[in-house]
């Protein structure tokens, strides 16, 4: 069973197209839908109701749209729509975030990079999602000199590093068998442990060529020569920044899928974009990021790589045939883009 959580804004619009494409591809999946985010708050007073969380727990995989609703911005933090995605990641122990960045050749002009450099991008960033400065001890205190001081502790233990390293190596095994681990080991103790543990785990994967890179250099290399990367594994903070950077190198935000996985391979699949309130309800949203997220779901959680390949090829074929939503400089509506992918499946 697949839990469908459309959410807010353009979430339901893009999820509808992903479901149409999965059906048209003959996947015959059993979908069960539940409210999440602002939509759930309005129905039940909570952005992640127990019934929704329970459905997600029972599901083989979760296909998620987006959450976020300007009408909820004045609510206290725990009731805001965005808390739903954080709650799902925490409750389902989704510790590994996989973000592919690949430029479809037809969209070279949409990249922030020169076309010949952009054409080289085909990489996956594996980002740790449950640790690092976002989850360490944090607070506000007063220094002895009487100044206000904010602090966020960066911490990883060796098991946390080992499990994300294994996801990095497994991802590399399924791709080009090279893995670049990104850290800041020249100044951070956390990164020194990270580097040591990743190097230890490497002995379990003799087929994978491991390299290490400092995060500042990695940021530079992503723009200078992105073709050198196949799989990057990194911590939560560095991965947050590098994956957004890589996504802009790969074109529109409406094109990029993601997966968040637990240790058993169960996952939540979602576009990297948000609920886009500025275009919601107008049929302008690009559904390809969600359609590609559905393909990742087939590949990573359901073991159906052939159907995933077919859907990804249909997206490429639709783009090659000139299908463009407004974010890509075209005029197709959300459902017309869905139609173009479905036609290309045949
Ligand atoms: P956003 O990603 O929703 O939108 C940024 C810009 O990109 C907007 O101009 C939007 O129209 C455009 N855009 C996004 N997706 C598009 C698509 N599929 N097709 C065409 N254009 C697209 O980010 P923003 O505006 O910062 O956040 C809006 C709301 O979404 C906020 O409430 C935010 O908290 C939430 N959000 C939720 C996420 C999630 O559910 N995982 C992730 C990011 C933001
Ligand atoms: Mg981010």
Automatic annotation (TrEMBL):
Catalysed reactions, semicolon-separated: (2R,3S)-3-isopropylmalate + NAD(+) = 4-methyl-2-oxopentanoate + CO2 + NADH
Gene Ontology biological process terms, A to Z: L-leucine biosynthetic process
Site (Important for catalysis) location in chain: 134, 184
Predominant localisation class: cytoplasm
Any one GO CC term of the record: cytosol
Pfam families registered for this protein in UniProt: Iso_dh (PF00180)
Keywords assigned by UniProt, alphabetized: Amino-acid biosynthesis, Branched-chain amino acid biosynthesis, Cytoplasm, Leucine biosynthesis, Magnesium, Manganese, Metal-binding, NAD, Oxidoreductase
InterPro entries in alphabetical order: IsoCit/isopropylmalate_DH_CS, IsoPropMal-DH-like_dom, Isopropylmalate_DH
Entry's family note: Belongs to the isocitrate and isopropylmalate dehydrogenases family. LeuB type 1 subfamily.
The protein's assembly and partners: Homodimer.
PANTHER family given in the database record: 3-ISOPROPYLMALATE DEHYDROGENASE (PTHR42979)
NCBIfam families xrefs: leuB
Task of the protein: Catalyzes the oxidation of 3-carboxy-2-hydroxy-4-methylpentanoate (3-isopropylmalate) to 3-carboxy-4-methyl-2-oxopentanoate. The product decarboxylates to 4-methyl-2 oxopentanoate.
Name of the protein in question: 3-isopropylmalate dehydrogenase
Gene from which this protein is expressed: leuB
């Amino acid at each position: 069973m697949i839990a469908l959580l459309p959410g807010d804004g353009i979430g339901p619009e893009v999820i509808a197209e992903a479901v149409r494409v999965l059906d048209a591809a003959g996947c015959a999946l059993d979908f069960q839908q539940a409210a999440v985010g602002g939509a759930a708050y309005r129905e039940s007073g909570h952005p992640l109701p127990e019934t929704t969380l329970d459905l997600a727990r029972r599901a083989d995989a979760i296909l998620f749209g987006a959450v976020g609703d300007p009408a909820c911005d004045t609510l206290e933090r725990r009731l805001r729509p965005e808390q739903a995605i954080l709650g799902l990641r925490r409750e389902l122990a989704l510790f590994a975030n996989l973000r592919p960045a690949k430029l479809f050749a037809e969209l070279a002009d949409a990249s922030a990079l020169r076309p010949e450099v952009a054409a080289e991008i085909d990489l996956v960033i594996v980002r740790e999602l449950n640790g690092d400065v976002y989850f360490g001890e944090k607070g506000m205190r007063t220094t002895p000199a009487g100044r206000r001081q904010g602090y966020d502790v960066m911490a990883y233990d060796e098991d946390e590093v080992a499990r994300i390293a294994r996801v990095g190596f497994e991802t590399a095994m399924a791709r080009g068998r090279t893995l670049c681990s990104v850290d800041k080991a020249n100044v951070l103790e956390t990164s020194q442990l990270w580097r040591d543990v990743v190097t230890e785990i490497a002995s379990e994967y003799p087929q994978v060529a491991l390299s290490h890179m400092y995060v500042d250099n990695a940021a530079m290399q992503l723009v200078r020569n992105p073709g050198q990367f196949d799989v990057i594994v990194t911590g939560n903070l560095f991965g947050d920044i590098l994956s957004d950077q890589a996504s802009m190198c790969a074109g529109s935000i409406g094109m990029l899928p993601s997966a968040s996985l637990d240790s058993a391979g169960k996952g939540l699949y979602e576009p990297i974009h948000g609920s886009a309130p500025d275009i919601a309800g107008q049929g302008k949203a690009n559904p390809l990021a969600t359609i590609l997220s559905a393909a990742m779901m087939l590949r990573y959680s359901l073991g159906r790589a052939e159907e995933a390949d077919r859907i990804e090829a249909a997206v490429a074929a639709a783009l090659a045939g000139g299908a463009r939503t407004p974010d890509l400089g075209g005029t197709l509506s959300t459902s017309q883009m869905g139609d173009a992918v479905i036609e290309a499946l045949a």
